[in-house]
Specification:
This protein has 8 helices and 16 strands. The chain is α+β, with helices and mostly antiparallel strands. Bound molecules: ligand DP6. Ligand DP6 binds next to helix 4.
Length: about 325
């Protein structure tokens, strides 16, 4: 079979990946831990076709150009090298959420591309190999390969991949995303990583990770939202402090970003257990128990500047599906 389609969910990190130890291999400066988001999906179909002279890539119905296309073609080259084939590919990908706004679209995009392209090329990679392959395209994509909650660690190309730490059914933790902008950010995470080491706070954040990681892992095991949320807020603020104090400075927050964060803390005082985290963008991910997701979404909707609210429980890992986009 030379055509395959895969579905992946993006993931939200509770301990972030910010800064690289090796840029070419996407080896991270620190280990990270995340949850897949069931409510958001990317579907990608890949077919390798004899006689086609160049790769054709469409993303959300538009022909891809520039860096977006180059990253896909570079990844197809990795898959071709692994499979020992030369055919060019037709790739179509669709996501049901806005790209480039801090919703980790590259994580689901490259997890889905890795599985669809490797299968279309005749490879049957196991989960670690698939996670490693996805990492080479986009670091956070390696965490969308296993189902549920995943830990990405390892210092070398061989052992740097994501492993599941808990299944999706382990804990109905919800992420209610307050979308406050759908604009493509000026500096995406891919380019932003290189700036991390220019911040005097980068080292301090990295030094805190060895203490944070076991606490977050234990909080997931114990289904302890206060422990998980407290740690997630601390690391998100630490990462944004690094971003803000980089040279040049990255300031992703908009006024409604801060309004959502402040509201969450006020509601917490009143007894609604909800905690925030953010990726490289202005949208706020609000973490809560399943039973509070409805009331939290409603309150967030009513805040000024909120354009949309996206609700997700823990998602599956990347998987093949029987239908195709073309
Ligand atoms: C802020 O995975 O997008 O979302 O490896 O260069 O593709 P590349 O970067 P990317 O970085 C994600 C950064 C983050 C934090 C996180 O998801 O851990």
């Amino acid at each position: 079979m030379n055509k395959a389609t895969a579905v992946a969910n993006p993931n939200i990190a509770f301990v972030k990946y910010w800064g690289k130890a090796d840029e070419a291999l996407n080896l991270p400066a620190n280990p990270s831990l995340s949850m897949n988001l069931a409510g958001l999906t990317t579907v990608t179909t890949v077919a390798f076709r004899a006689g086609q002279t160049s790769d054709m890539v469409t993303i959300d119905g538009q022909s891809a150009a520039g860096e977006a296309r180059e990253r896909v073609v570079a990844h197809l080259d990795r898959v071709r090298a692994l499979a020992g084939i030369g055919e060019r590919a037709w790739v179509a990908s669709r996501s049901d959420f806005p790209a480039g706004t801090g919703l980790a679209s590259s994580s689901s995009a490259f997890a889905a591309l890795s599985l669809a392209a490797s299968r279309a090329a005749g490879l049957a990679l196991d989960e670690p190999a698939l996670s490693r392959l996805a990492r080479l395209a986009s670091g956070s994509a390696c965490r969308s390969v296993p189902a549920g909650f995943s830990l990405w660690q390892g210092d070398t190309d061989r052992d740097s991949y994501a492993r599941q730490v808990a299944s999706p059914s382990h804990w109905a933790l919800y992420d209610v995303v307050a979308v406050v902008s759908r604009e493509h950010k000026a500096v995406g995470s891919h380019a932003g990583h290189a700036l991390a080491s220019t911040s005097p706070l980068h080292r301090a954040r990295l030094d805190a990770v060895p203490g944070l990681l076991p606490a977050v892992r234990a909080a997931i095991e114990d289904r302890d939202l206060a422990a998980l949320g407290g740690a997630a807020e601390r690391d998100a603020l630490a990462m944004h402090s690094v971003m803000m104090t980089s040279q040049p400075s990255l300031l992703y927050w908009l006024p409604p970003t801060l309004a959502v964060m402040q509201a969450l803390r006020a509601w917490r005082q009143e007894g609604l257990a909800a905690y925030f985290t953010l990726d490289a963008g202005p949208n706020v991910h609000c973490l809560c128990e399943a039973r509070d997701a409805g009331v939290l979404s409603e309150r967030i909707w009513n805040l000024p500047g909120v354009l949309d609210v996206l609700v997700s429980g823990p998602g599956e890992g990347v998987r093949l599906v029987e239908y195709h986009l073309f």
